[in-house]
Each structure stands twice: as structure tokens, then as C-alpha cells.
């Protein structure tokens, strides 16, 4: 025990003597000109740049040299490297021999700039291999550890477009080398643009292990890393752990983008607060990047995920399902459609640049809202074939089934919806009601063919965006309360030249029996576009007359903008002529036998359920002359329209001449 106490006392005495020696020797060493010169020379040889610094001071515990305000002078094209101070911790044994051995460097208040260029990463300084010299240096730069405290680090990414600089503030970092050459490091910092970074790891030979945690990372400054038409805002959290050879690193990745707001134009959007998480094993193999054994969670979709970024970018989703309600906030192509129902898939392969899709998508009871309380419901499978997705199956509208071929094309450019429909013997009342027509406004069996298309993701409503041909026929059928013949007679009654004859033959008159709202057929071919259906051959055929129309019908409210011809058959012609002569008010015209006659309709407006008819005065006069050869109505007409009698005489002569010609033939 006494021997141990004596040994301890001896070591204590030596330690005291060493401290006293350091207290005397260090300040002297710090003030020696050759020490300053050696530090400057060592910096110049290792970096190729001039080192400037202020005072060179010394500390005792631990023994160290303190360099005030050091700066490596910038050369053209390089960033300056400066610090508030640099502490050089000294090895004890070289110091006792009168030499300076530096094993730890501490940078305080440093200002460092790194650069990413096409040739790789550029360090703040380029470290050159030490030159061999016969003269022995009094400074040993075998540095075992580097520490950075209270510093700022900038990373200038000169590859990004536009060029982007990331600023790290309040940097606290250290890196040390063991006797075996293993390097360990750790760092903490704050991003000036938003976010906190923590990293640690080790490099042992060619093996690297690193852990990175990035919390609250602000996405807006990362715009340069998104496609030109995309933008990002909000925050994201990342956790990454990589290990392995430096040219083949891999390890777990977890990304939480719930607070992120992403906008990729017409293809994808994610509002802040909507769930988006990606996890899996990140693999870096040369220039190739892959996410293996991954998992994607987006809104209510959760699916296994594999991603490969090489010569082309491809993602594989290995099965999942989602409820479509609310997905219009994420997929702009669905915006405004109000879809509900289930979408599921077993495996989808999605390619990027250009966008492509291969695999099967199943639609289960997917519903598209129509009129209030009405919807179109479809269940079918869609096959992705690259630049398009197509499928076929029945769609149910108002309880009626229609065979539908559905497709989404132009995936790599402007999304296009295609709809091909065919049906026969549908209940037109049920179909019309599903699209908002009043109850019992139409009835009859409906045949339908349509080949329609519409761009997806635009601002226009689907009904306004649809284009393509549509053909339909209802035979027989009924438009309750609608008679274009009655509307035409009412229009004639409002024209001065025809009022005398037709003003009293309408409601309650001779012609009322022809105001039947049941038709033999109604149909035509339409070209849809711009929210309207344009037709040149819309025909309504009744027992005693027909109406042929051309023009536009608005799809949203069935507003009519048409013109055409009313053709009356012999029964109506005879009824009009009889009403004119029975009272003795007129004598029969030269062509008094029952024939088909045409009345031009200048305009058919209103809506499909309440049409209005306009007849021009010229057409009304010409139509009336066929029935007025003389008598009281002739006189009334002449009083209402001065000179009309002369016109009638001329027309009568023409008609008489025509009759004589027909008789002679």
C-alpha cells in the first residue's frame, strides 16, 4: 500500500511538472515566428491557398494553439474559407520535445461552401498530397479529429436548374480517425429554408454506414428538383439509413409527406394534410436508384411499391383498393365528376417519361352523379396497354342497362376520355328522368348509338367537353303536352297575313283534333361539341304531319335553336280548306284538292319540353294563299295587309297556271 501511494505521488508530481512546463513552453512556442510560418506553409502546401490569421494564442488544459480569424484567401472561381477561430489541440509528447503535433482541429464560427458540379462534389478546399522534404518540420499535421461548432455551411448545386444553394446554420459536427483508419462522424444543423438535419456514421475501408434524419424539411426551395410544370410547398420528414460498399449502398427509407402540398399539373395533386407516406429499402447502385420492398400509403390506398430509376423510371404497385369519393382532390382528371365507388387492382406497372400504365383495374359499382338523386353506375375491368386504359361492360342509368366501351387515352400527354355506347329498346322515360327531365316528359322505346370523347382535367364540365356523333330513335313515343303542329298554328295566328284564317282554328277550333302528343317516331343524328348537339336531320313523325329540323340543342338545359319545315298531310290540309269554305268566308283556291303542304319554320326555340315556333310573315302569307281564293277572309286579309289581295291574285294565277300545265300533261 505504501508503495502504491508513493507511485501515485510520483505521477502527480510529474503531472504538476508537465503542467508547469506547458504553462511556460506553450506561450513561447505560440510566439515563435517559425511556428506561424510553419502553420502558413503547411496550409499553403495542403490547399494551395494563402492562409491569413490574426493572433496566435495558447491554452493549457487541454494544450492547444488558438488561431484567431483565420481565412484561406479565395482564388478566382473559389469561395473564401474563414472562421471566427480555430483551436489546434496539441499532442503531449511532441510538445515536450519542443515540437507541435496537432491531433484535433476545432473550427468555431466557420463559413464553408461546398459545390455540386457535373464533375462531382467540390470541397471548400482541395487537399493536396504533402510534399516530401529533407528539412524536418516543427509542425506535425497528423490530425486525428476535426470539430465544427457554431458554423455555417453552404451547398451550391450548380447542376440544378435554376441553380440552388442550401444553407446550413448552427452547424455542430465532428469527424475522427482511429488508429486503424476508421472514420466516424456526426453532425447537427438547421436549414435556413426550414428543417433540422441530424446525421452520423462511419467509413471503414470501402464500407460506409450512415444514418440521416431530416425533420420539417421545407419543400418550396426544392422546386429545381421537380418537373418544370410542378410545384411543392409545405414540409416533409425523412429518415434514411445506408450501409455497404460506397458504390452499392442500401438501407431503410421512410418519408412522411402528410404536411406536403404537391402539384404536378393535370396528372397529380396532393393537398397539405392528405396522407402520403413512402417506406422501403433504398438501393444505390452506381447511377441507378431503386426502392425495394416498399410501401405506399396515399389517402385510403395502401399498396406494396417497387421503384426503379435508371435509363427509365418505373414503379410497380402490387395490389390495392380505394374508395373514389374525394380522390378528385388528388387526381385532377376526376375533378367535378363526383365519382363514388371502389377501384381496385392486382398489379400495375407505371412508367414515367413518358407516362404509361400496364395492368388491370377493376371498377366496382362506380357511380357518376346525374340529376338529383340519379346516377350512372358502372362495373367493369380496364386493361392498361401503355398509353391507354380501355374496358367494356354495362352501365346502368335509371335502371336501364347500356353496353359501354370506356377508355382513357393519351396518358403521356392530354388525357382523353372515350365513351362508345349502344343500346336498344330502353325506357326513354327512365333515361330522361336520370338526366333531369321532368317526370313523364318523354316515353317510348329508345335505340341509341354514340361514340363520344372528352378531355379530362380541364375546367369545362363533362357535358360541355363531350364531342362526337350520337344517333337515337324513339318509335313510337309520346311528348306529353307537346305538339309542334299546335305551336305552328299558334304562330300563324299571330301573323297578320294569316290571322284571319288560323286565328280561330287553334284551341277549341277545327284543328285541335290534330294536336295529338303521341308520335310515330322521333330521332336523328347529332354531332356533340361545345355543350351543344348539332343536327341536320332531326325528324318528328306524327300520323297527320311531320317536322324536319336542323340546328342546335343545348345539352345542359335542352334549349332549342332550330329551324326547319312542317309538312302537313292530306287530312290536315282538307280540314283547313274545309274550315275556310264551310262558313262561306272564302272560296276554294284553284288547287283545292287535299295535298301535302309545307310550312317553313323560321325558328324553333324554347326547350324540348316547351318548344316555341316562329313563322316568317312571308312564309305565313305563302301558306295562307293556298286556302284563300276569295270571300270574307280574303277581304279581311286585304284590310289587315293592304295590297295582299293583289298578291293573292298573282299567286292564284300562278297556281292556276300550274294546275292547267299539270292537266295538259
In short:
The chain is of the alpha+beta class and 665 residues long.
Q: Nearest-angstrom radius of gyration?
A: 46 Å
Q: Beta-strand level of the residues, as a percent range?
A: over 45%
Number of domains: 4
Oligomeric state: single chain
Shape: elongated
Individual helix count:
11
What's the mean pLDDT score?
A: 81
Would you identify the regions where 5 or more consecutive residues have pLDDT less than 50? 1-26, 643-665
Biggest sheet layout: 35 strands, mixed
Fraction in helix: 10-25%
Helix/strand/pairing class, anyone? Answer: alpha+beta
Structure, explained:
- The longest helix has 30 residues.
- With 665 residues, this protein is α+β, with helices and mostly antiparallel strands.
- The termini are far apart.
- The N terminus and C terminus are likely disordered.
- The strands form three sheets. The chain has a 35-stranded mixed β-sheet that branches. A three-stranded antiparallel β-sheet has the order 1-4-5. A two-stranded antiparallel sheet has the order 33-34.
- Helices cover 20% and strands 47% of the residues.
- It has four domains: 130 residues, no CATH class; 131 residues, no CATH class; 150 residues, no CATH class; 190 residues, no CATH class.
Amino acid at each position: 500500500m505504501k508503495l502504491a501511494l508513493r507511485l501515485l505521488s510520483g505521477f502527480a508530481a510529474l503531472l504538476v511538472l508537465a503542467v508547469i512546463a506547458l504553462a511556460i513552453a506553450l506561450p513561447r512556442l505560440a510566439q515563435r515566428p517559425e511556428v506561424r510560418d510553419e502553420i502558413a506553409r503547411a496550409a499553403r502546401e495542403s490547399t494551395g491557398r494563402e492562409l491569413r490569421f490574426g493572433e496566435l494564442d495558447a491554452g493549457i488544459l487541454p494544450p492547444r494553439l488558438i488561431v484567431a480569424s483565420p481565412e484561406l484567401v479565395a482564388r478566382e472561381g473559389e469561395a473564401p474559407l474563414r472562421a471566427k477561430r480555430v483551436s489546434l489541440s496539441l499532442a503531449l509528447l511532441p510538445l515536450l520535445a519542443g515540437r507541435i503535433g496537432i491531433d484535433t482541429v476545432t473550427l468555431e464560427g466557420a463559413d464553408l461552401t461546398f459545390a455540386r458540379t457535373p464533375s462531382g462534389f467540390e470541397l471548400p478546399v482541395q487537399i493536396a498530397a504533402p510534399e516530401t522534404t529533407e528539412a524536418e518540420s516543427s509542425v506535425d499535421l497528423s490530425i486525428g479529429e476535426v470539430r465544427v461548432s457554431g458554423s455555417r455551411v453552404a451547398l451550391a448545386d450548380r447542376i440544378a436548374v435554376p441553380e440552388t444553394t442550401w444553407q446550413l446554420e448552427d452547424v455542430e459536427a465532428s469527424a475522427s480517425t482511429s488508429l486503424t483508419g476508421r472514420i466516424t462522424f456526426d453532425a447537427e444543423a438547421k436549414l435556413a429554408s426550414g428543417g433540422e438535419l441530424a446525421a452520423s456514421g462511419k467509413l471503414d475501408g470501402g464500407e460506409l454506414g450512415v444514418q440521416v434524419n431530416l425533420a420539417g424539411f421545407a419543400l418550396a426551395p426544392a422546386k429545381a428538383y421537380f418537373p418544370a410544370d410542378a410545384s411543392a410547398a409545405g414540409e416533409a420528414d425523412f429518415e434514411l439509413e445506408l450501409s455497404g460498399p460506397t458504390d452499392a449502398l442500401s438501407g431503410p427509407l421512410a418519408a412522411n409527406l402528410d404536411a406536403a402540398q404537391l402539384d404536378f399539373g393535370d396528372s397529380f395533386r396532393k393537398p397539405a394534410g392528405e396522407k402520403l407516406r413512402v417506406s422501403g429499402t433504398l438501393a444505390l447502385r452506381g447511377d441507378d436508384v431503386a426502392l425495394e420492398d416498399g410501401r405506399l400509403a396515399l389517402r385510403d390506398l395502401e399498396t406494396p411499391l417497387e421503384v426503379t430509376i435508371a435509363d427509365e423510371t418505373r414503379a410497380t404497385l402490387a395490389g390495392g383498393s380505394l374508395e373514389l369519393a374525394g380522390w378528385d382532390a388528388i387526381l385532377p382528371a376526376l375533378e367535378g365528376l363526383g365519382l363514388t365507388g371502389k377501384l381496385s387492382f392486382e398489379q400495375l406497372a407505371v412508367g414515367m417519361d413518358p407516362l404509361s400504365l400496364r395492368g388491370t383495374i377493376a371498377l366496382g359499382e362506380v357511380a357518376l352523379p346525374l340529376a338529383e338523386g340519379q346516377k350512372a353506375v358502372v362495373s367493369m375491368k380496364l386493361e392498361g396497354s401503355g398509353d391507354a386504359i380501355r374496358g367494356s361492360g354495362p352501365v346502368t342509368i335509371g335502371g336501364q342497362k347500356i353496353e359501354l366501351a370506356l377508355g382513357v387515352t393519351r396518358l403521356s400527354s392530354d388525357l382523353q376520355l372515350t365513351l362508345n355506347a349502344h343500346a336498344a329498346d330502353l325506357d326513354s322515360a327512365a333515361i330522361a328522368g336520370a338526366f333531369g327531365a321532368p317526370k313523364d316528359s318523354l316515353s317510348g322505346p329508345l335505340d341509341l348509338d354514340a361514340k363520344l370523347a372528352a378531355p379530362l382535367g380541364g375546367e369545362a364540365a363533362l357535358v360541355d367537353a363531350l364531342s362526337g356523333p350520337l344517333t337515337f330513335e324513339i318509335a313510337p313515343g309520346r311528348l306529353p303536352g307537346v305538339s309542334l303542329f299546335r305551336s305552328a298554328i299558334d304562330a300563324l295566328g299571330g301573323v297578320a297575313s294569316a290571322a284571319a284564317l288560323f286565328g280561330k282554328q287553334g284551341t277549341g277550333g277545327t284543328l285541335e283534333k290534330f294536336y295529338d302528343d303521341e308520335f310515330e317516331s322521333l330521332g336523328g343524328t347529332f354531332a356533340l361539341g361545345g355543350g351543344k348537339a348539332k343536327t341536320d336531320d332531326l325528324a318528328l313523325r306524327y300520323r297527320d304531319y311531320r317536322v324536319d329540323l336542323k340546328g342546335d340543342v343545348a345539352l345542359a338545359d335542352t334549349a332549342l335553336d332550330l329551324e326547319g319545315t312542317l309538312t302537313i298531310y292530306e287530312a290536315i290540309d282538307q280540314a283547313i280548306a274545309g274550315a275556310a269554305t264551310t262558313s262561306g268566308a272564302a272560296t276554294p283556291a284553284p288547287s283545292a284538292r287535299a295535298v301535302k303542304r309545307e310550312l317553313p319554320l323560321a325558328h324553333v326555340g324554347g326547350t324540348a319540353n316547351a318548344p316555341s315556333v316562329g313563322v316568317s310573315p312571308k312564309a305565313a302569307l305563302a301558306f295562307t294563299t293556298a286556302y284563300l281564293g276569295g270571300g270574307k277572309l280574303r277581304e279581311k286579309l286585304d284590310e289587315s295587309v293592304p295590297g295582299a289581295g293583289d298578291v293573292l291574285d298573282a299567286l292564284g294565277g300562278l297556281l292556276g297556271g300550274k294546275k292547267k300545265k299539270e292537266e295538259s300533261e
